[in-house]
Design a protein that fits this description.
By secondary structure, the protein is an all-alpha fold. The protein folds into three domains: 292 residues, Na+/H+ antiporter like fold (Up-down Bundle), CATH 1.20.1530; 48 residues; 44 residues, no CATH class. Helix content is 69%, strand content 3%. A two-stranded antiparallel ribbon has the order 1-2.
Amino acid sequence: MKIDIEEQERERMPLERNFDRIISPLQSFLQSQSSAGMLLLIATFIALYMANSQWQEAYIWLTEYHVGFIWGEGYIIHSAVEWVNEGLIVLFFFLLGLEIKYQVLAGELQDTKSSMLAIFMAVGGMVIPALTYLAIMTLMAGDSWQGWGIPMATDTAFAIGLLVLLGRRVPTSVLVLITALAIVDDMGAVLIISFFYTDSVSLMQLGYGAITLSLMVLANFLGIRWAWFYLFAGLVLWWFISHSGVHATTAGILAALTVPAKPYADTHWFARNMERLVSRFKRMDNNDTTILEQQQQHDLAEAAEDIAITATTPVQRWQSKLSKPISLLVLPLFALLNAGVVMPDNSASMGSATVFWATMLGLLVGKPLGIFFFAYFAIKLGFAQKPKDMIWRDVIALGCFAGIGFTMSLFIANLAFSGSADSLAHAKLGILAGSLLSAVLGFCLFLSKSKSQLK
Protein backbone atom coordinates (compact mmCIF):
# COMPACT_ATOMS: atom_id res chain seq x y z
CA MET A 1 0.00 0.00 0.00
CA LYS A 2 1.38 3.38 -1.02
CA ILE A 3 1.51 5.96 1.79
CA ASP A 4 0.84 9.56 0.75
CA ILE A 5 2.30 12.32 2.94
CA GLU A 6 1.54 16.01 2.41
CA GLU A 7 4.56 18.24 1.84
CA GLN A 8 3.92 20.26 5.02
CA GLU A 9 4.06 17.02 7.03
CA ARG A 10 7.45 15.90 5.66
CA GLU A 11 10.71 15.92 7.61
CA ARG A 12 13.41 16.56 4.99
CA MET A 13 17.19 16.34 4.93
CA PRO A 14 19.12 19.40 3.61
CA LEU A 15 19.56 18.14 0.01
CA GLU A 16 16.55 15.81 -0.11
CA ARG A 17 14.19 18.14 -2.00
CA ASN A 18 16.47 18.50 -5.03
CA PHE A 19 17.39 14.81 -4.98
CA ASP A 20 13.68 13.93 -4.82
CA ARG A 21 13.10 15.58 -8.17
CA ILE A 22 15.57 13.17 -9.73
CA ILE A 23 14.64 9.99 -7.89
CA SER A 24 10.83 10.37 -7.78
CA PRO A 25 10.24 9.37 -11.44
CA LEU A 26 12.30 6.22 -10.85
CA GLN A 27 10.37 5.44 -7.67
CA SER A 28 7.07 5.93 -9.49
CA PHE A 29 8.19 3.56 -12.24
CA LEU A 30 9.28 0.87 -9.77
CA GLN A 31 5.96 1.15 -7.93
CA SER A 32 3.88 0.85 -11.12
CA GLN A 33 2.34 -2.46 -12.20
CA SER A 34 4.02 -2.26 -15.59
CA SER A 35 7.56 -1.94 -14.20
CA ALA A 36 8.16 -5.70 -13.89
CA GLY A 37 7.12 -6.33 -17.48
CA MET A 38 9.19 -3.43 -18.79
CA LEU A 39 12.32 -4.57 -16.94
CA LEU A 40 11.83 -8.08 -18.32
CA LEU A 41 11.59 -6.57 -21.79
CA ILE A 42 14.74 -4.48 -21.29
CA ALA A 43 16.69 -7.49 -19.96
CA THR A 44 15.56 -9.55 -22.96
CA PHE A 45 16.69 -6.89 -25.45
CA ILE A 46 20.07 -6.59 -23.70
CA ALA A 47 20.54 -10.38 -23.81
CA LEU A 48 19.60 -10.59 -27.50
CA TYR A 49 21.83 -7.65 -28.41
CA MET A 50 24.85 -9.00 -26.55
CA ALA A 51 24.39 -12.52 -28.00
CA ASN A 52 24.23 -11.15 -31.55
CA SER A 53 26.90 -8.43 -31.48
CA GLN A 54 30.57 -7.88 -30.70
CA TRP A 55 29.59 -8.49 -27.06
CA GLN A 56 28.85 -12.17 -27.72
CA GLU A 57 31.96 -13.45 -25.98
CA ALA A 58 31.26 -11.19 -23.00
CA TYR A 59 27.71 -12.58 -22.81
CA ILE A 60 28.97 -16.18 -22.89
CA TRP A 61 31.52 -15.30 -20.18
CA LEU A 62 28.73 -13.76 -18.07
CA THR A 63 26.42 -16.78 -18.31
CA GLU A 64 29.19 -19.33 -17.80
CA TYR A 65 31.06 -17.45 -15.04
CA HIS A 66 31.49 -19.88 -12.15
CA VAL A 67 30.67 -18.89 -8.60
CA GLY A 68 30.66 -21.05 -5.49
CA PHE A 69 31.93 -21.98 -2.05
CA ILE A 70 34.98 -23.99 -1.03
CA TRP A 71 35.56 -25.46 2.41
CA GLY A 72 38.39 -27.91 3.01
CA GLU A 73 38.02 -30.65 0.40
CA GLY A 74 34.37 -29.82 -0.22
CA TYR A 75 32.99 -27.30 -2.69
CA ILE A 76 29.84 -26.11 -4.43
CA ILE A 77 30.59 -24.33 -7.70
CA HIS A 78 28.13 -23.61 -10.52
CA SER A 79 27.87 -21.24 -13.47
CA ALA A 80 25.88 -18.01 -13.11
CA VAL A 81 23.04 -19.33 -15.26
CA GLU A 82 22.88 -22.53 -13.16
CA TRP A 83 22.71 -20.55 -9.90
CA VAL A 84 19.84 -18.50 -11.30
CA ASN A 85 17.94 -21.41 -12.90
CA GLU A 86 18.41 -23.79 -9.99
CA GLY A 87 18.58 -21.38 -7.08
CA LEU A 88 17.30 -17.83 -7.41
CA ILE A 89 14.33 -18.81 -9.57
CA VAL A 90 13.12 -20.97 -6.65
CA LEU A 91 12.29 -17.68 -4.90
CA PHE A 92 9.93 -16.90 -7.79
CA PHE A 93 8.24 -20.27 -7.32
CA PHE A 94 8.05 -19.65 -3.56
CA LEU A 95 6.27 -16.35 -4.27
CA LEU A 96 4.06 -18.17 -6.75
CA GLY A 97 3.20 -20.72 -4.06
CA LEU A 98 2.24 -17.94 -1.63
CA GLU A 99 -0.02 -16.43 -4.31
CA ILE A 100 -1.63 -19.81 -5.01
CA LYS A 101 -2.30 -20.40 -1.32
CA TYR A 102 -3.79 -16.92 -0.92
CA GLN A 103 -5.99 -17.23 -4.02
CA VAL A 104 -7.32 -20.63 -2.92
CA LEU A 105 -8.01 -19.58 0.68
CA ALA A 106 -9.26 -16.03 0.20
CA GLY A 107 -8.88 -14.86 -3.40
CA GLU A 108 -10.29 -15.50 -6.85
CA LEU A 109 -10.08 -19.29 -6.49
CA GLN A 110 -11.76 -19.44 -3.07
CA ASP A 111 -15.18 -20.18 -4.52
CA THR A 112 -14.81 -22.88 -7.17
CA LYS A 113 -18.14 -22.04 -8.78
CA SER A 114 -17.33 -18.35 -9.27
CA SER A 115 -13.83 -19.19 -10.50
CA MET A 116 -14.96 -21.82 -13.01
CA LEU A 117 -14.48 -19.47 -15.98
CA ALA A 118 -10.82 -18.89 -15.11
CA ILE A 119 -10.31 -22.62 -14.50
CA PHE A 120 -11.84 -23.56 -17.87
CA MET A 121 -9.78 -20.88 -19.60
CA ALA A 122 -6.60 -22.11 -17.94
CA VAL A 123 -7.28 -25.73 -18.90
CA GLY A 124 -7.98 -24.70 -22.50
CA GLY A 125 -4.87 -22.53 -22.46
CA MET A 126 -2.77 -25.56 -21.49
CA VAL A 127 -4.36 -28.41 -23.46
CA ILE A 128 -4.76 -26.75 -26.89
CA PRO A 129 -1.25 -25.20 -27.05
CA ALA A 130 0.27 -28.59 -26.14
CA LEU A 131 -1.86 -30.30 -28.83
CA THR A 132 -0.91 -27.56 -31.31
CA TYR A 133 2.77 -28.20 -30.61
CA LEU A 134 2.32 -31.95 -31.12
CA ALA A 135 0.26 -31.39 -34.30
CA ILE A 136 2.95 -29.15 -35.84
CA MET A 137 5.61 -31.64 -34.83
CA THR A 138 3.63 -34.39 -36.60
CA LEU A 139 2.94 -32.35 -39.74
CA MET A 140 6.58 -31.33 -40.09
CA ALA A 141 7.85 -34.83 -39.24
CA GLY A 142 9.81 -33.55 -36.26
CA ASP A 143 11.05 -35.62 -33.35
CA SER A 144 11.38 -33.04 -30.53
CA TRP A 145 8.24 -34.19 -28.74
CA GLN A 146 9.56 -33.33 -25.29
CA GLY A 147 8.93 -29.62 -25.88
CA TRP A 148 5.14 -29.98 -25.72
CA GLY A 149 5.02 -28.25 -22.31
CA ILE A 150 6.72 -25.04 -23.49
CA PRO A 151 3.68 -23.20 -25.00
CA MET A 152 1.45 -24.07 -22.05
CA ALA A 153 2.80 -21.32 -19.79
CA THR A 154 1.72 -17.69 -19.27
CA ASP A 155 4.03 -14.92 -18.07
CA THR A 156 1.84 -13.01 -15.60
CA ALA A 157 4.26 -10.11 -15.09
CA PHE A 158 4.56 -9.41 -18.82
CA ALA A 159 0.85 -9.89 -19.54
CA ILE A 160 -0.51 -7.73 -16.72
CA GLY A 161 2.20 -5.09 -17.20
CA LEU A 162 1.20 -4.65 -20.85
CA LEU A 163 -2.54 -4.78 -20.12
CA VAL A 164 -2.18 -1.94 -17.60
CA LEU A 165 -0.70 0.25 -20.35
CA LEU A 166 -4.00 -0.01 -22.27
CA GLY A 167 -5.92 1.74 -19.50
CA ARG A 168 -9.73 1.74 -19.70
CA ARG A 169 -9.73 -0.22 -22.96
CA VAL A 170 -9.18 -3.30 -20.81
CA PRO A 171 -12.21 -4.24 -18.66
CA THR A 172 -11.47 -4.83 -14.98
CA SER A 173 -12.74 -8.40 -15.31
CA VAL A 174 -9.98 -9.12 -17.87
CA LEU A 175 -7.27 -8.23 -15.34
CA VAL A 176 -8.98 -10.36 -12.67
CA LEU A 177 -9.45 -13.31 -15.04
CA ILE A 178 -5.93 -13.33 -16.44
CA THR A 179 -4.51 -13.22 -12.89
CA ALA A 180 -6.66 -16.18 -11.78
CA LEU A 181 -6.03 -17.97 -15.08
CA ALA A 182 -2.27 -17.54 -14.70
CA ILE A 183 -2.38 -18.99 -11.18
CA VAL A 184 -4.15 -22.15 -12.39
CA ASP A 185 -1.81 -22.19 -15.39
CA ASP A 186 1.21 -22.02 -13.09
CA MET A 187 -0.16 -24.89 -10.97
CA GLY A 188 -0.28 -26.97 -14.13
CA ALA A 189 3.23 -25.90 -15.13
CA VAL A 190 4.62 -26.91 -11.73
CA LEU A 191 2.99 -30.35 -12.00
CA ILE A 192 4.33 -30.76 -15.54
CA ILE A 193 7.86 -29.84 -14.44
CA SER A 194 7.67 -32.24 -11.47
CA PHE A 195 6.25 -35.24 -13.34
CA PHE A 196 7.36 -34.93 -16.96
CA TYR A 197 10.71 -33.13 -16.83
CA THR A 198 12.35 -35.24 -14.17
CA ASP A 199 14.90 -37.80 -15.41
CA SER A 200 15.54 -40.02 -12.39
CA VAL A 201 14.52 -39.87 -8.75
CA SER A 202 16.58 -40.64 -5.65
CA LEU A 203 14.07 -42.08 -3.17
CA MET A 204 16.44 -41.51 -0.25
CA GLN A 205 16.86 -37.77 -0.96
CA LEU A 206 13.14 -37.51 -1.67
CA GLY A 207 12.46 -39.20 1.67
CA TYR A 208 14.64 -36.66 3.50
CA GLY A 209 12.73 -33.93 1.67
CA ALA A 210 9.42 -35.46 2.76
CA ILE A 211 10.59 -35.47 6.40
CA THR A 212 11.63 -31.80 6.12
CA LEU A 213 8.29 -30.89 4.55
CA SER A 214 6.44 -32.77 7.30
CA LEU A 215 8.32 -30.77 9.95
CA MET A 216 7.32 -27.54 8.18
CA VAL A 217 3.67 -28.62 8.10
CA LEU A 218 3.89 -29.55 11.79
CA ALA A 219 5.39 -26.14 12.56
CA ASN A 220 2.41 -24.54 10.81
CA PHE A 221 -0.02 -26.55 12.96
CA LEU A 222 1.93 -25.65 16.09
CA GLY A 223 1.52 -21.97 15.27
CA ILE A 224 5.19 -21.23 14.55
CA ARG A 225 5.31 -18.02 12.53
CA TRP A 226 9.07 -17.26 12.61
CA ALA A 227 10.31 -16.26 9.18
CA TRP A 228 13.82 -17.55 9.94
CA PHE A 229 12.49 -21.05 10.67
CA TYR A 230 10.72 -21.32 7.31
CA LEU A 231 13.72 -19.80 5.52
CA PHE A 232 16.14 -22.36 7.00
CA ALA A 233 13.74 -25.29 6.57
CA GLY A 234 13.01 -24.14 3.02
CA LEU A 235 16.75 -24.16 2.19
CA VAL A 236 17.06 -27.69 3.60
CA LEU A 237 14.01 -28.78 1.57
CA TRP A 238 15.52 -27.17 -1.56
CA TRP A 239 18.77 -29.05 -1.03
CA PHE A 240 17.07 -32.46 -0.72
CA ILE A 241 14.63 -31.87 -3.58
CA SER A 242 17.35 -30.60 -5.94
CA HIS A 243 19.48 -33.72 -5.19
CA SER A 244 16.51 -36.09 -5.54
CA GLY A 245 16.13 -35.63 -9.30
CA VAL A 246 12.88 -33.66 -9.00
CA HIS A 247 13.50 -30.10 -10.12
CA ALA A 248 14.41 -27.71 -7.29
CA THR A 249 11.59 -25.29 -8.13
CA THR A 250 9.14 -27.80 -6.64
CA ALA A 251 10.70 -27.02 -3.25
CA GLY A 252 9.69 -23.36 -3.61
CA ILE A 253 6.03 -24.24 -4.17
CA LEU A 254 5.93 -26.85 -1.38
CA ALA A 255 7.67 -24.56 1.13
CA ALA A 256 5.20 -21.75 0.38
CA LEU A 257 2.22 -24.02 1.01
CA THR A 258 3.42 -24.60 4.59
CA VAL A 259 3.56 -20.87 5.44
CA PRO A 260 0.91 -19.97 8.07
CA ALA A 261 -2.22 -18.24 6.76
CA LYS A 262 -3.55 -17.14 10.16
CA PRO A 263 -2.44 -14.09 12.16
CA TYR A 264 -1.41 -14.27 15.81
CA ALA A 265 -4.20 -11.90 16.86
CA ASP A 266 -7.54 -10.91 15.33
CA THR A 267 -8.56 -7.57 13.81
CA HIS A 268 -10.51 -6.43 16.91
CA TRP A 269 -7.39 -6.78 19.07
CA PHE A 270 -5.42 -4.86 16.40
CA ALA A 271 -7.93 -1.98 16.26
CA ARG A 272 -8.21 -1.72 20.05
CA ASN A 273 -4.46 -1.65 20.69
CA MET A 274 -3.69 0.70 17.80
CA GLU A 275 -6.26 3.17 19.09
CA ARG A 276 -4.57 3.11 22.50
CA LEU A 277 -1.14 3.64 20.96
CA VAL A 278 -2.31 6.48 18.73
CA SER A 279 -4.02 8.15 21.70
CA ARG A 280 -0.83 7.98 23.79
CA PHE A 281 1.25 9.14 20.80
CA LYS A 282 -0.99 12.22 20.33
CA ARG A 283 -0.75 13.16 24.01
CA MET A 284 3.05 13.24 23.72
CA ASP A 285 3.08 15.09 20.41
CA ASN A 286 4.79 18.46 20.48
CA ASN A 287 5.35 20.74 17.49
CA ASP A 288 8.57 22.04 19.03
CA THR A 289 10.28 18.62 19.19
CA THR A 290 10.93 15.77 16.80
CA ILE A 291 10.60 12.05 17.39
CA LEU A 292 14.40 11.95 17.76
CA GLU A 293 13.97 13.92 20.99
CA GLN A 294 10.96 11.90 22.14
CA GLN A 295 12.19 8.37 22.89
CA GLN A 296 8.77 7.34 24.19
CA GLN A 297 7.16 8.31 20.88
CA HIS A 298 9.79 6.24 19.07
CA ASP A 299 8.98 3.26 21.32
CA LEU A 300 5.27 3.66 20.56
CA ALA A 301 5.95 3.77 16.82
CA GLU A 302 7.96 0.53 17.11
CA ALA A 303 5.14 -1.01 19.17
CA ALA A 304 2.71 -0.09 16.38
CA GLU A 305 4.90 -1.99 13.92
CA ASP A 306 4.93 -5.04 16.23
CA ILE A 307 1.14 -4.89 16.56
CA ALA A 308 0.76 -4.71 12.78
CA ILE A 309 2.98 -7.80 12.34
CA THR A 310 1.04 -9.66 15.03
CA ALA A 311 -2.30 -8.97 13.32
CA THR A 312 -1.26 -9.78 9.73
CA THR A 313 -0.80 -13.21 8.14
CA PRO A 314 2.67 -14.45 7.17
CA VAL A 315 1.31 -15.46 3.74
CA GLN A 316 0.24 -11.90 2.88
CA ARG A 317 3.13 -10.18 4.64
CA TRP A 318 5.87 -12.26 3.03
CA GLN A 319 4.17 -12.05 -0.33
CA SER A 320 4.18 -8.24 -0.24
CA LYS A 321 7.80 -8.16 0.97
CA LEU A 322 9.09 -10.51 -1.73
CA SER A 323 7.00 -9.34 -4.68
CA LYS A 324 9.06 -6.31 -5.72
CA PRO A 325 12.58 -7.77 -5.24
CA ILE A 326 11.66 -10.89 -7.21
CA SER A 327 9.83 -9.11 -10.02
CA LEU A 328 12.41 -6.32 -10.33
CA LEU A 329 15.62 -8.30 -9.75
CA VAL A 330 15.26 -12.09 -9.97
CA LEU A 331 13.06 -12.31 -13.08
CA PRO A 332 15.02 -9.71 -15.13
CA LEU A 333 18.26 -11.51 -14.16
CA PHE A 334 16.70 -14.81 -15.28
CA ALA A 335 15.73 -13.20 -18.60
CA LEU A 336 19.19 -11.64 -19.04
CA LEU A 337 20.96 -14.99 -18.63
CA ASN A 338 18.48 -17.10 -20.60
CA ALA A 339 17.09 -14.99 -23.45
CA GLY A 340 20.39 -14.47 -25.26
CA VAL A 341 19.92 -16.72 -28.27
CA VAL A 342 21.96 -16.28 -31.45
CA MET A 343 19.78 -15.38 -34.42
CA PRO A 344 20.19 -17.62 -37.51
CA ASP A 345 22.16 -16.19 -40.42
CA ASN A 346 19.40 -17.00 -42.90
CA SER A 347 15.71 -17.78 -42.78
CA ALA A 348 16.17 -21.09 -44.59
CA SER A 349 17.42 -22.78 -41.44
CA MET A 350 14.32 -21.58 -39.57
CA GLY A 351 12.03 -23.00 -42.24
CA SER A 352 13.01 -26.52 -41.24
CA ALA A 353 13.13 -25.81 -37.49
CA THR A 354 10.10 -27.75 -36.27
CA VAL A 355 10.67 -26.70 -32.65
CA PHE A 356 10.51 -23.02 -33.61
CA TRP A 357 7.21 -23.33 -35.49
CA ALA A 358 5.62 -25.69 -32.97
CA THR A 359 6.53 -23.39 -30.06
CA MET A 360 5.56 -20.15 -31.79
CA LEU A 361 2.21 -21.42 -33.10
CA GLY A 362 1.47 -23.08 -29.78
CA LEU A 363 1.64 -19.66 -28.11
CA LEU A 364 0.25 -17.53 -30.94
CA VAL A 365 -2.59 -19.82 -32.09
CA GLY A 366 -3.05 -22.51 -29.45
CA LYS A 367 -3.35 -20.18 -26.45
CA PRO A 368 -6.09 -17.81 -27.70
CA LEU A 369 -8.06 -20.61 -29.40
CA GLY A 370 -7.89 -22.85 -26.34
CA ILE A 371 -8.92 -20.09 -23.96
CA PHE A 372 -11.72 -18.82 -26.21
CA PHE A 373 -13.33 -22.18 -27.02
CA PHE A 374 -13.12 -23.55 -23.48
CA ALA A 375 -14.59 -20.29 -22.13
CA TYR A 376 -17.32 -20.34 -24.80
CA PHE A 377 -18.43 -23.90 -24.04
CA ALA A 378 -18.18 -23.37 -20.25
CA ILE A 379 -20.51 -20.37 -20.52
CA LYS A 380 -22.91 -21.95 -23.04
CA LEU A 381 -23.19 -25.16 -20.98
CA GLY A 382 -23.88 -23.16 -17.82
CA PHE A 383 -20.70 -24.07 -15.94
CA ALA A 384 -19.56 -20.44 -15.82
CA GLN A 385 -20.84 -16.92 -16.45
CA LYS A 386 -19.31 -14.24 -18.65
CA PRO A 387 -18.61 -10.96 -16.79
CA LYS A 388 -20.97 -8.15 -17.82
CA ASP A 389 -18.16 -5.76 -18.78
CA MET A 390 -16.60 -8.28 -21.19
CA ILE A 391 -17.44 -9.03 -24.81
CA TRP A 392 -16.28 -12.09 -26.76
CA ARG A 393 -13.65 -9.96 -28.49
CA ASP A 394 -12.10 -9.34 -25.05
CA VAL A 395 -11.88 -13.09 -24.43
CA ILE A 396 -9.85 -13.56 -27.63
CA ALA A 397 -7.64 -10.58 -26.74
CA LEU A 398 -7.15 -11.99 -23.24
CA GLY A 399 -6.11 -15.28 -24.85
CA CYS A 400 -3.53 -13.42 -26.93
CA PHE A 401 -1.98 -11.81 -23.87
CA ALA A 402 -1.97 -15.23 -22.16
CA GLY A 403 0.15 -16.33 -25.14
CA ILE A 404 3.01 -14.27 -23.71
CA GLY A 405 4.72 -17.29 -22.19
CA PHE A 406 8.12 -15.78 -21.63
CA THR A 407 9.59 -16.60 -18.20
CA MET A 408 7.98 -19.99 -17.50
CA SER A 409 8.25 -21.07 -21.15
CA LEU A 410 11.99 -20.32 -21.18
CA PHE A 411 12.33 -22.27 -17.97
CA ILE A 412 10.53 -25.34 -19.35
CA ALA A 413 12.52 -25.08 -22.60
CA ASN A 414 15.77 -25.29 -20.61
CA LEU A 415 14.52 -28.48 -19.00
CA ALA A 416 13.11 -30.01 -22.20
CA PHE A 417 16.19 -29.41 -24.36
CA SER A 418 19.01 -29.41 -21.83
CA GLY A 419 20.98 -31.81 -24.02
CA SER A 420 20.35 -30.16 -27.38
CA ALA A 421 21.72 -26.66 -27.96
CA ASP A 422 20.12 -26.30 -31.42
CA SER A 423 16.64 -27.33 -30.26
CA LEU A 424 16.93 -25.06 -27.22
CA ALA A 425 17.92 -22.11 -29.43
CA HIS A 426 14.98 -22.76 -31.77
CA ALA A 427 12.64 -23.10 -28.79
CA LYS A 428 13.82 -19.78 -27.37
CA LEU A 429 13.33 -18.08 -30.74
CA GLY A 430 9.84 -19.59 -30.93
CA ILE A 431 9.04 -18.30 -27.44
CA LEU A 432 10.27 -14.78 -28.29
CA ALA A 433 8.45 -14.68 -31.64
CA GLY A 434 5.24 -16.21 -30.27
CA SER A 435 5.17 -13.94 -27.22
CA LEU A 436 5.89 -10.81 -29.29
CA LEU A 437 3.26 -11.58 -31.94
CA SER A 438 0.73 -12.54 -29.25
CA ALA A 439 1.27 -9.20 -27.50
CA VAL A 440 0.96 -7.25 -30.77
CA LEU A 441 -2.25 -9.08 -31.71
CA GLY A 442 -3.70 -8.52 -28.24
CA PHE A 443 -2.85 -4.82 -28.39
CA CYS A 444 -4.49 -4.51 -31.82
CA LEU A 445 -7.70 -6.18 -30.61
CA PHE A 446 -8.03 -3.89 -27.60
CA LEU A 447 -6.96 -0.70 -29.42
CA SER A 448 -9.39 -1.30 -32.30
CA LYS A 449 -12.43 -1.46 -30.02
CA SER A 450 -15.10 1.06 -30.98
CA LYS A 451 -16.37 3.77 -28.61
CA SER A 452 -19.60 1.85 -28.04
CA GLN A 453 -17.58 -1.21 -27.01
CA LEU A 454 -15.64 0.80 -24.44
CA LYS A 455 -18.75 1.72 -22.50
